[in-house]
């Protein structure tokens, strides 16, 4: 596997949160981001102990590598705020225009002074950063990155600690993220990518996928998402059941045994459900090319005499003990499949008839032909 099972488990554990009340949250869609970067080999793929995003610093003179950075995260503009309504200014002297420019500069300098007071090494903003603000931050030795997506900023906050601040006047020491070990900007092809890695206790991560083409990366991402969803299901509900059709065969056996104790018509729903469940092991047997009837009889006999963990080997079609064979399914998925199948069957049985509101194309054409035939018939002259 490109990204090993252990690494996939680590990514899911990274975003796992559990409060004192026992509530679990594993949001892999929001906090385990998959970044696909074409180029390189698949073996270069990795799971970062932090986050990355497709951004570069706003000024070429700013640092592109900082160890143990202090990070400030902002959700406000670092530029002069324009008025919502139209404003007219009347200048009476030539110095008035300079005063207006000076007021704008003082406003920007006040915002930057609020940030510089906390002595950060890196400023991340969801909004814009003006040229003047870049100048003041560069003089203070601070790197700045602007216009981050909200989702990226939330992952950064979970990875490096700290809080996203909406006004610079409200900045406090506790808002600064200090758990990042390395800030670094790398170039892949023509794109710059920001890496915030070596985090002490990250609660968000990024999975970096490399590959020769976009098609390869899309396929790897689909497999990775499947693997992470399985790991998430196991962590949310840590119970496993034997795979290879063993569960379906075991339930079918119990239902048939139950039906024998019921007299009359009441036993047939049990038998019908048992036959429906046997479709899963039968399909596995057909895929292997073995004799379905004989193998199904052997599987039923095993469940009647030797326990409920016997299933079908998906490669050879032999009947094996799934506990020793090592094939397991998650209880959460298996129970949901059974619930959905039974509820769908009930829904279909409740439908007594189907009324179509759309005419078939053949009926429309027949009506057209009948109309043409009537119009072509000669009309009898009317008597006066």
Taken as a percent bin, the fraction of beta residues is: 15-25%
User: What is the residue-averaged pLDDT?
Assistant: 86
Helix/strand order: HEEHEEEEEHEHEHEEEEHEHHHHEEHEHH
Q: Output the strand order for the largest sheet.
A: 5-12-11-6
Poorly predicted spans = none
Q: What's the shape?
A: elongated
Biggest sheet, open or closed, and with what strands and sense?
A: 4 strands, antiparallel
The rounded distance between the terminal residues' Cα atoms is 94 Å
Spatial extent as radius of gyration: 34 Å
Total DSSP E strands: 17
Helices, by number, come to 13
> What oligomeric state best describes the polypeptide chains here?
single chain
In which range does the helix fraction lie? 40-55%
What structural class is derived from the secondary structure elements?
A: alpha/beta
Could you characterize what this model shows?
The chain has 384 residues and is α/β, with parallel strands linked by helices. 44% of the residues lie in helices and 18% in strands. The protein has 13 helices and 17 strands. The chain has a 4-stranded antiparallel sheet, with helices on one face. α3 links the parallel β7 and β8. It is elongated and about 105 Å long. The N and C termini lie far apart (94 Å).
In short:
The protein is α/β, with parallel strands linked by helices and 384 residues long. The protein is 44% helix and 18% strand.
